[in-house]
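Good day; I would like, with your permission, to put a structural problem before you. A protein sequence and the structure tokens that stand for its backbone fold form the material at issue. I would ask you to consider whether the tokens describe a fold that such a sequence might reasonably adopt. I set the record out below, with my sincere thanks for your time.
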Amino acid sequence: MGDEMPAAVLRKYAALPGYLQWPVPQRQSGQALVRVLAAPISPLDLLCASGTSYFGAPKLPYIPGTQGVGIVMEADALAPGQRVWFSCDAGMKPGDGSMAQYCLIEEASAPPRSRAASPRHSDSPPLPPGWRSLGAVASSQVSRCWCWVPVVRWDRWPGCLELAV
């Protein structure tokens, strides 16, 4: 792992994020560093990125994303290599979110999932330059939603990835 990572960085409210190199976050006690596999764009992400959130406008620049699925790289309590679904506070509190190659999360917010992501192929709509759709349909106990993720290393899964979390 290097000092920088690809990330979707929001530099202006209500605008598309830029696909930029960003410093890899440094973990503190009680946090886990997660390699992000997929991150949905939720209504809360859109609200925070608009600059009109009831939490207040997040300080720019920042990496949006309040949820994701990934693999634990470093942690105190979680095992490295463990697949997790996670939530984070990007846009609601200071700090970056899940739309990057790596994300910091509070370990308590990451219950492990027993089933791994499995690739499935389908057509996906066009995205802004620097982004690729996994066309991912994220399955959770609550809902199903389309997931858009920044290009990192998902080129071996063209099209759709159904997340079984």
In short: The chain has one helix and ten strands. The chain has two domains: 4-109, 118-164. Strands lie at 4-9, 18-23, 31-38, 67-74, 83-87, 102-106, 118-119, 131-139, 144-150, 161-164. The mean pLDDT is 74.
